[in-house]
């Protein structure tokens, strides 16, 4: 069972008219999540990416937030009062059933795996399965987990034209209980902890800050020489 960082979600109100400042990142129209009332644009580095998301039907989203999709990334928007900025992390696995069994063995309740899909502008349907940890002991919007309907090799071939010569190398996370946060990530996600950073193979490092809230504070993208910027409530750092 493999676990890798897959994507991070940035909510932007008015995404249809959004352009990333100074065109630092390329955005490609993703599609619509018909079950959830959301749509997205994607900025790929490799198979990992930044997902920019907005809502096309708030009534549909808020209905979904009360049923089996109450832990979904879309429901997060409703829970956080549609505040722009970083929303959720997602990790990719190659065996979501085994991952579910692992979480249950850790004493966790889960929702899923559930099948999802979206329709791309060209009519192609992209499918995947999602898994959520159902833990009401934290105020943090926990990471969720995805298994794509096609292999990494097939997806890499399909998505290669969108890849940018960039890499997300770090994410800064704030927590009110650093010790518990570290314990959870090492137990649940088999992360390693060293020098104030959590490490998961083949992905960015996660730097922890202790503070007064549970949040994603910033990401750092390598391959761009540019000052840090705040974009619709989300902080982006860059390094050459």
UniProtKB/TrEMBL annotation:
Give the classification, highest ranks: Bacteria, Bacillati, Bacillota, Bacilli, Bacillales
Species this chain originates from:
Macrococcus bovicus
Domain named Glyoxalase-like: which ranges?
Answer: 5-189
Q: Please give the name of this protein.
A: VOC family protein
């Amino acid at each position: 069972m493999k676990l890798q960082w897959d994507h991070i979600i940035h909510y932007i109100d008015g995404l249809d008219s959004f352009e990333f400042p100074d065109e630092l990142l390329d955005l490609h129209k993703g599609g619509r999540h018909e079950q959830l009332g959301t749509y997205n644009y994607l900025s790929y580095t490799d198979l990992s990416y930044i997902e920019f998301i907005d809502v096309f039907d708030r009534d549909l989203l808020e209905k979904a937030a009360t049923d089996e999709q109450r832990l979904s990334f879309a429901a997060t928007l409703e829970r956080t009062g549609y505040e722009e900025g970083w929303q959720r992390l997602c990790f990719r696995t190659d065996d979501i059933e085994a991952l579910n069994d692992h979480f249950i063995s850790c004493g966790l309740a889960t929702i899923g795996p559930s099948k999802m899909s979206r329709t791309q502008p060209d009519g192609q349907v992209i499918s995947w399965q999602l898994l959520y940890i159902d833990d009401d002991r934290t105020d943090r919007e926990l990471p969720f987990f995805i298994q794509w309907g096609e292999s990494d090799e097939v997806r890499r071939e399909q998505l290669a034209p969108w890849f940018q010569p960039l890499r997300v190398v770090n994410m800064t996370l704030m927590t009110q209980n650093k010790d518990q946060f570290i314990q959870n990530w090492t137990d649940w996600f088999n992360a390693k902890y060293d020098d104030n950073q959590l490490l998961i193979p083949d992905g960015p490092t996660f730097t922890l800050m202790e503070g007064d809230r549970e949040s994603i504070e910033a990401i750092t993208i390598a391959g761009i020489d540019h000052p840090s910027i705040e974009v619709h409530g989300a902080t982006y750092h860059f390094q050459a």
